[in-house]
Structures are given as C-alpha cells and as structure tokens.
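User: Continuing from earlier, I have the next pair ready.

Assistant: Great, send them over.

User: Here they are, in order.

Assistant: Folding the first of the pair now:
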Amino acid sequence: MKRLLVGLALGELAFLLSRVFFACFNPEVAPISGPWFQWFLGGLLFDGVAFGYLLAPWLLALPWVKSSRRFDFIFYFVPLAVGLLLNGIDTGFFQFSGKRLTFDFFLTTDLENQGVGQIWVYVRDFWKVTLSWLLCLMPPLYFVRAARYRGLASDSVTGEKSGRVRSLFQFGISALLLLVLVRGTFLLHGRPVPIAAAAQFADATSVPLVLNSVFTILRTSQKRPLSDYGFFLEEELAEIYTPIQTIQPFDIPAGSVRPKNLVVLILESFSAEYSAFLTTREDAGFTPFLDSLMQKSAWWPLALANGQRSIHAPPAILSSIPGWMADPYSLSVYSTNSIESVVRQLGADQDGRSVFFHGATLRSMSFDTFVATAGISRHYGRENFPVAIAEGDQNTWGVQDRPLLRTVAAELGQLSSPFVSVVFTLSSHHPYQIPDHEQPERFPSGEHPIHRAVAYSDDSLREFFERASAQPWYSDTLFVLTADHVGPRSSQNRGPRWWDRLKDASRVSPGFWSGSYPEDFERYRVPLVMFSPSGAVPAGLQITVAQQLDIYPTVMSLMGFSGEVFSFGKNLFDPSQNQSFFYVENQGTGWFEGFYRDASGQVRSVRLAAEEELARGGSSPFGGDSIGGAPSPRDVLKAQLQQYSRALRSNRMQLPHR
C-alpha cells in the first residue's frame, strides 16, 4: 500500500507543478490575490479522476506484481507523461482557445496533413512550455527509478496463502479506490462529477486553473444529445423568447443603391485591440487599412465573437447558430440538420452563385460539411492553390492571405449576380509565418508575433479591395468584415482603458454605456464592419452591442428581405428589438452566462447551470433581476436555451418557406 500511496502522491505533485506552470503562462486565470489554496484543493478532485483513468491498469495490477522498473515505466510513467503532455499543450493553447482542451480538439486538428509539422512548430515556439513539461515529469520519473531500491517496493507476492489473501485484500482496496477516483465522489449513486463542479472552487475566470486537460477531454469524449430543457410550457416559452423574427427591409439612404451581392470576410484572430480605430491605441495599430475602411462604414465598437475557436464562426455568422453545447455545431450529432443560412435566403445556393474560400485543407475544421449544409455551391481550399504552394506562398496551415485574396478578387468576377462569397483568412494564425519575399520587416511589429502577421493580412486586405473596386460587381456588393475569434492579448490594452479613451474622444454616445466596462468582453471583442460602396449602409459608429449571431438577420434587412427568419441573433438596425439582453457565453464547463443591461445602463450578468437547474426543477442560485417588469434575465436565458435545444433536437431550425 505504501507503494500505491507514494505513487499517487508523486503523480499529484507532477499535476500540481503542471497547474502552477499553467497559471504562470496564463496569469489572467490566476490573480495573485486569489484563493490559491481553494483552487488547488479543487484541483485534487479533478486530478483524482484523471489518475483513475490514466493509472487504472497500474492500480489493479499492483497487488499481484512485484516491483520492477519496466512495469512502473509502462503502466505508471507513460500514462502520466501523456496526461502531463496534454496539460502542457493546453498551457500554450489556452491563450488561443480560452478554455481547457475538449475532445473536439482532436477532431478539428488536421493530423493527416499538418500534425507532424505542427508538433515541431509547437516545440520550437513554445519551448518554455516544453521545458515545463519535462520538469513536471521529474516526480513520476523519480518514483520509477526509486521504487525498487529505496524502500518503496510492493508487498511480497508469494504462493503462500497469507500472501494471496493479502494481495486479494489490497486488490479490493485498489478497485474501490479506482471506482472513487473515476467517479470523483464517494457516492456510488448519482452522476460522476461533471465539469461544472469546478464552479464550486473558482469563479468563471479561474475555473480552467482548477480543471485539468485529461479530465475535460474525457468528459467530452462522447457526443451526447442536448437535454430537452423543459423550463417553460410551450405557451409561456414563446412569450419570453422566440428565435422566429420578422425582418423588414432597411430603409437605405436616398441616392444609394441596395446591394445585390454579399462578401463576408472572416479574419483569423483579428482582435479589436489590434485596431487603433477601435482602441485609440498609443501606437498606430496593426490594421491601418481596416481602420480606414471603418471610417466609410457602419462599425460597432462592442462586437463580440460567439466562440473562441474558428470552427464556431461560420455557423454563427452565416446561420445565426450559437455554440451552446459541448460539441461545436459542425461536429455535433445535429450537424446534418436542415438549417437556414444567408446563402439560401438570398437564393445564392442555386446555379453555382456561392463560394467559400479558405487557405487550409478542405476538411479543416469540418468546414466542408458545414459549407455543404449551408447551401454553398463551391469550396476552395489549399488543394486548389497549387501555384501558390509551389511558389512558397503557404505556411504550416495553408495558403497565405495575399494569394488567397488575389484569387478571390479574380474569381468573384466570374460569378453571376446576385452571389454570396465567404472568405476565411489564415495568415494571422499561429505560427504567424510571413513569406520572405513579402519582406516581413516592412510590417509593424508589436510585443506579440501575431501583430506583424495581422499587419500582413491587413495589407493583403487592402490589395483585395483595390482589385475588387476596379470590377463592375463591386458597387453592387455589401461587404461584412469580422473575426472568427480574438487573438492573443497584449498588455497595452488590457482592461477598460480603451473604452474610457473612446468616451473621452467623444467617439461614442454618452448614453451608450454607464458604469464600469466588463473586462470579460475583451475575450470576445472583435471588429464588425459593414461597408457598401454605393452608400446603402450609413457610415458611422453604431451604439448597439453586437455579436456574430446578429450578422445574418442584419444582412437580410440590408439586402431588402421582407419576411421571417430563424435566428438567435437580432437585426442590429431594428430599434424595436429588445437590446437589453445581448450576449450568452457558453463557458464550456456546464454553465452559461448571459449579459444584459439593467434600467440604469449598468452591465450585469446572470449565470445558469442548465443541467443542474433542470434536475432541481428550475430553481437557480444565480442572480438576475427583472428589467422593468419584463421577463427576468434568468428567464430569458433559460428560454433561449430551451428554444435552442428544442430546435436542434426536433430538426426545426429552418422555417417552412425555405
């Protein structure tokens, strides 16, 4: 038993070191003044579950096997090394994803085409993380080397009856311990400990510190259907919230021409903070062209991405589908559902008048499956750019932005109007490589390597608009520019300083916001720009809080559509829609947080552990008061989740007219 206890203790020491390194590399999750003891105490629970799965063969064989380095190395050291490696990958990857690894990470990583190269790039660019992983291996390595020679050997296993009885007794203890570890609880009834249990030990920001990557991957390894959230009766539900919205044509300014074509540009990792126009940065920023375009466009200083990974962006932007479940929509059991999309609503799903451009492989991020489901006729990927690849215009992931956007400008001229084109850039994705012939040093650099890559992508965007403006379809086109998610944050613009300076510069209305700025928004704040060369979209700042889900219904209004759409967003130009409850965050840990503005304009949030509340019959411990007699924010959040669940489960996310 001594050997078992010492092995588990040294394994926990290794996971503790891994957690410390996670905090050091991601300081935003672990404020210095935080409850560290509580965090690490909670971590013991989730580490125990990881040990239960990783070390199950070792635990069950211990009573019957004599101590040997080979046995301990294979069944103890190797599983722990793999678990610590996953924690190490997460330590570096967290700055991009904002959450612990989940099983979909393996489904969206193109191992066949990029896996081996990416391993070397990761080791090179995150050598400090690699070193921390090696340091975490020291405690289990010490156990393997010392177990036989320093008094940690197992009890003698002999053929004598007493030895067999002792081994059988120890096996029973090991089996019971394994059951407790795997379930995460001493109770043999009820559900095993869920990811959401981490909220008992930390607030939303610090929950990733309490968890470990092995646990979150295991708990998300099986695709599960959404629960049927029956919070309200059907007649009550529609009164509180409905995703069926009536769209009226936007009243375009006199003398302008309503656009016929749509081009959506999804810019990889373009955080709003990289723009001088969106932050009034002290430097010139890294998006001078995008900043200049905003001055001729409708733009939103508070636009929020609906996810933290690229795979969430196309469903949110094109079909207003939130990522309110454990799996990304494109990888879920509902990915083949019939859905609405801006492509189908504009009739561009017929006659090859819609195209999706992306520089990575066609199967990357399961874009190929969603593109087909959304009704997009053609899909360009890395395989369609042999010349660019031959000339070295590619990085680890795919074709660079300049040759991609040059191809887009040329191909759009071949489409029949009206058409819809979606372009997804990638040069500003790690490892932020810029071809040597582009003379990378001519682009401004900042404190993070992504800044120079963003500047290169912005310059590629400038050239695209120059080429597009010379073509006849340009003046009849609505351009929508946003990002898939935020990129790594820089120290210069952390916190609400950018917001205070915008207000000081009188670039926002005094009534737009009151109270303190919720810094959590910086994890999601991206550009949102809508530009019409003909002037159909009035230029200027828009004071509505926006999200990616709002793009679909807003575009339909701008394009002159009249009728109903199925959307979990809102028409940003419709003042009659309730703007108080404006964003729902799926925190990936079993609960949701909805943000709203109260009657005084102060931003508040309401949190909902949906599964736990359903089990309790609807009683929630989290806050959220009524807004002027309207349904409470908590009820609005529950109604949204119920409508979302019902629509997916019954395959009713498309109205009968389409």
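And the other member of the pair:
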Amino acid sequence: MFYDDVKQPPRMLSFPALFTPTWRHDLYPAISPKEDLVGSAEGLSVLITGGGRGVGKGIALVFAMARAKKVVITSRTLTQLEEVEQAIEAEVGKGKVTVIKVVADITNREDVERLFEAAGELDGKSYSG
C-alpha cells in the first residue's frame, strides 16, 4: 500500500480554505462602492424586490450611494424596509434620496399592481393604473 510507512493519512484542507486564505465580512477600500459608484446612478429611479435584507438591501444601499433619485424597495416585512430606509439615510443623509417602501409579495398580482401604483413614475414612465 502507498501509505504503509505513514501512521496517519495526510490531513486534507477543506475546499474553501484552499482558495480563500482571507475571509472578509465587511467592505474594504478595493471593493467599496463609495468612490467608484458615486454619481453613476444620478437621476435614476430604481425598483428593488427583496430589498428588506441580504443582497436586495445591499443593492438598495449602493444605488442610494450612487445618487439615484428614487429607490423603491419591497419586502414582505415593514420592519425590514424601515431598517433599510434608516441605513440609507445614515449612509447618504436624510432627504438626499426618495425612499418608497412597499410591503408586498411579488407572487401576488394585487400586491404587484399596488407596488407599481406606489412607485408612480420611474424615469419618466408611469407604470401605475
């Protein structure tokens, strides 16, 4: 056998450890949107589904930092939407971007119609009624 002279089999590294020597949980200068994206969405209106947490929350924050004029966020939980609105205000300043929060389930037709009604005009096009 190949391992006859080895008392223990060799230790195997876990898969992520082979490729990710440093784990990062926060933004660092090389990937921070604050410098590169500032002004890149200036004047745009965006609608983000699932904007109450996770990736959707991050997208909402980045568009606000990029100076979008209106950020419409939707989630099934109002408290999550309020937390995202507070995070946007803390990041870019109160009143710098219009944040519209809509509690909706996008699998429900009536909720989707109500979402677009609340969003109103997005970049010159009206999607309501």
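Worth noting for the second one:
The two ends are 76 Å apart (CA to CA). The domain at 40-123 is CATH 3.40.50.720 (Rossmann fold).
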